[in-house]
Specification:
single chain; 11% strand; five-stranded antiparallel β-sheet; Beta-lactamase; alpha+beta; two-stranded antiparallel ribbon; globular
């Protein structure tokens, strides 16, 4: 039955964790100190919108825009979570459940890579204002000397959007050489361009500074401590393929793929992103597989100032850097050191009601995490909209779900157009 689930035990620590207050109307930001704020009255969800959420996703499935999805909406102790559809459009395909594992695509940037970089900064091993070439001297040239770690995190490095696929290459070392061979198209800090190269380099930076691969570091410092049991890279090492939603069919590529697990050209437990497949499945730009409930744990941790169930993952200052405006002056696209706040990519998942100052990220495979600290609500959508041929468009669904989530969380209409200033 579709209803609100209290998750009392799961939420006990989060309910008493530090609250986030809005300092000015619509200027939403997380506290720098992490100190508990004054007790608030219980805030829940308006169940009147749940039917519309179901209808929107069911309609998209009926239009073959995605075969299946899980939606999770949460505010305070109230949770609405529902699974929809099947792994594929076949009538006998496995039904999606709340425990279905999805390829999170670029959600990897904010679930793993950006928090890993911030943790290394907390450890004193990495300087966010340092230059890329301080860590990778081999990246010198082509205008990259001015790129800082902050530029990479905010997508203001001036680097291209992605690595070239030709001539053919394989492996992380080849990816690093290609990234270091790129020239900037704009002076670093002067132009916003969403770029996978930025986060590929950041993932490689984590490995160099931490002395261990990104997937190992993320497991030990983020996923493990948070109890994100189904989250990580290279899922077939630990999860039955039958629990993972398939993404794209790649008949032409299957025979040449280096992945033994790419059976029959179907990507099921093998990362969808072609660049990350070439790298080997672990990269800063994509590669994480997860469940909606695990992503919800991550969201609760952020709303609680970096702590969940008595375990601190990030310091409050790092949460603030991740989730509030950190873009260089003069950049219209507002980003945290990881999270999207008000770039062109934020308009759909934010819907028409969540204000500027809410934050989140999307993933190419059909995934969303969006959090509003002012209403203390968030929603998660995980889907495999790229099945079977990467041609479906779900952007209108994103807007509809973002609006319905905000309505259910009681976000007032007048807040939608409120701006937020860079610190």
């Amino acid at each position: 039955m579709r209803s609100i689930s209290p998750y009392t035990l799961l939420r006990r620590q989060a309910l008493v964790a530090s609250a986030c207050l809005v300092l000015l109307a619509g200027c939403a930001g997380l506290p720098e100190t992490g100190e508990p704020s004054a007790p608030q009255a219980r805030a829940g969800l308006d169940g009147a919108r749940f039917g519309a959420i179901d209808s929107a996703i069911d309609a998209a499935i009926g239009e073959r825009r995605l075969p299946g999805a899980v939606f999770h909406l949460e505010r305070g102790a109230d949770v609405y979570e529902q699974a929809y559809g099947r792994f594929s459009y076949d009538a006998d395909a496995a039904a999606v459940t709340p425990g279905t594992v999805f390829d999170a695509a670029s959600l990897s940037k904010v679930l793993a890579t950006a928090p890993a970089v911030l943790l290394l900064a907390e450890d004193g091993k990495l300087d966010l204002e340092a230059k890329l070439v301080d860590y990778f001297p081999e990246c010198n040239g082509g205008g990259k000397e001015a790129i800082t770690i902050r530029h990479l995190l905010t997508h203001t490095s001036g680097l291209a959007a992605g690595l070239p696929a030709r001539p053919a290459w394989r492996g992380d070392e080849a990816a690093h050489a290609l990234a270091c061979a790129q020239a900037v198209t704009h002076a670093p800090g002067t132009f916003f361009r969403y770029s996978d190269i930025n986060y590929i380099l950041l993932g490689q930076l984590v490995r160099k500074v931490a002395g261990q691969p990104l997937d190992v570091f993320a497991q030990e410092r983020i996923f493990g401590p948070l109890g994100m049991r189904d989250t990580g890279y290279l899922p077939l090492r630990r999860i039955d393929r039958a629990a993972i939603a398939p993404t794209q069919k790649l008949a032409a590529e299957a025979s040449a793929s280096p992945h033994a697990d790419l059976a029959g050209g179907l990507l099921q437990g093998v990362v969808h992103d072609p660049t990350v497949r070439r790298i080997g499945g672990v990269a800063g730009s994509a590669g994480v597989f997860t469940t909606s409930r695990d992503v919800a744990r991550f969201a609760r941790m952020l709303l609680a100032g970096g702590e969940l169930d008595g375990v601190r993952v990030l310091q409050p200052a790092s949460v603030r850097l991740l989730t509030t405006v950190q873009s260089p002056p003069g950049i219209a696209a507002l980003r945290g050191l990881g999270m999207d706040i008000d770039s062109p990519y934020a308009l759909r998942p934010r819907g028409s009601l969540y204000p500027v100052g809410s934050f989140g990220h999307t993933g190419f495979t059909g995934c969303i995490l969006w959090i509003d600290p002012a209403s203390r609500s968030f929603y998660v959508l995980l889907s495999n909209r790229v099945y079977p041929d990467d041609k479906a468009n779900v952007l209108a669904l994103y807007t509809r779900l973002g609006t319905l989530a905000a309505e259910s969380a009681g976000v007032p209409a007048h807040r939608a157009n409120t701006g937020v200033a860079a610190p």
